[in-house]
UniProtKB/TrEMBL annotation:
The keyword Lyase does not apply. InterPro entries: CTLH/CRA, CTLH_C, Fyv10_fam, Rmd5_dRing, ZF_RING_GID, Znf-RING_euk, Znf_RING/FYVE/PHD. This is RING-Gid-type domain-containing protein. A zinc finger (RING-Gid-type) spans 324-366. Its main location: cytoplasm. The keyword Hydrolase does not apply. It is found in: Cytoplasm. SMART domains: CTLH. Residues 324-366 form the RING-Gid-type domain.
Amino acid sequence: MSITQQEGSTLLKDLERIRKKTKISNKVLNGQLDQIITEIEEAKTNNDYSQLKDKLQVQYLLRKNEKPLTKIKQTNNDCYAYISKLGKNMDKVYKKNLQYGQEHIELDQNVLTELIKTHLLRDGEFEAYETLVKESGSVDSNFHQFFTEAQSIVKDLKEKKLDSAIQWAENRGKKSVNNLLYELLKQRVIQLVQTEGINVAINFMRNSASFQEQSQGRLYEICLITYSLLIWPNVENTKYFYLYDNERNWPRVLNLFLEVAAKSQNILTKSEIRTVFSAGCLAMPKLIKYNQITRNRSSEVLTNDIPIDIEIGKEYKYHSFFVCPVSREVTNSDNPPVLLKCGHVISKLSAHKMIANKQKFKCPTCPVETKGVDLPELIFI
């Protein structure tokens, strides 16, 4: 028999003892309660009912039934002693699980395979991707062609080549890529100034239909570029230097392309696997500290949420949340936010506490009243 089976058998024996003790306790409790009820009924029969209101008569009945009440209390204590013992045995058996969380989590094999495939495509590891598809027997990813094209553009941008990125943005023709297209064309102008001279850059600004279109509504920025040409190449100590700062501008353009490209496919900019790994690395020190503090606490309970805030940065927040202005607690599925008649929002539990037994209650922010039945739940996406 394995250790796990032995531990399980011990807990089952404890549960069986509790079942038997509870059964016996119920008989004892029912007997003692019947005895007390009988005494009270006799008192009502032998005496006028109104006399029971007399303080001395009530005290007499309490003293007379003190022994049954003591027996009930003792029986309850014995029963809870068995339950407490079970809790302590569970703490011993599952102590390591309570400290370190679930040791084994079942993952959907297909989902995990898709995540790894997407991760490899993001990183441009196409050979490894093809091997994984072949060995796993899965189908080709819908993002294969997209990432192939995207990785080619990323490679060009790292080599300061803009043609493929500009063509990609022009082919999309959506408002969501307008800012990217403008930044790429502006970077082309700056690149021409630095490599081929001012005249070539001016001709590009005049003759490029895309640049003319993207310049609409950006008169101030176009003026800055034009003014910078008048003092080129002496821009280092001027307010125009940011336009020619290649160490910042090229990485910024690259990141903007990755962001827009990801949004065009409704996917995350960064790899899901890399994001989870990075978030875990940032959260691990705090989790270790939390584990050290709660290691010897038998009251610790394993739940999906831990009672501390793990702050790992805004870039790892993907879901909106709402803090109730009354309870100062973050709402969740068990305590969702609700909309009041006035338009203000509080948590459902706070609303129920304010309602109590009333049909209406006032908003905690303004004097408008809301009916208890008019509390639609809100869902933040």
